[in-house]
Write a structure and sequence with these properties.
Blueprint: H1 2-14, H2 18-45, H3 52-59, H4 61-78
Helix pairs in contact: 1-4, 2-3, 2-4
């Protein structure tokens, strides 16, 4: 199931123009520390203990988006012709 979601994200990012892909990548890069901090703060505020770990896993979804964006941009920039 995760493989399908990542594949879908990859195709959606690839279908965008180069400036849009750059914007998606930078937006996800900025969101990564904000979501991580938010997940840790929420976990602490609600005293979730070890249940904070799933929140942190979800908060790292932008890292996958950044990697897909960089891959997509790199493929376009380095593609011959």
């Amino acid at each position: 199931m995760i493989h399908e979601h990542v594949g879908h994200l990859h195709h959606v990012i690839d279908d965008q123009s180069l400036p849009a892909r750059l914007g998606i990548t930078l937006g996800a890069l900025v969101a990564l520390p904000l979501l991580g901090t938010g997940a840790r703060t929420l976990g602490s505020a609600l005293d979730l203990g070890w249940l904070t770990l799933p929140l942190l896993a979800i908060a790292h979804v932008p890292a996958v988006i950044v990697l897909l964006g960089v891959w997509s941009i790199g493929c376009d920039v380095c593609r011959p012709g």
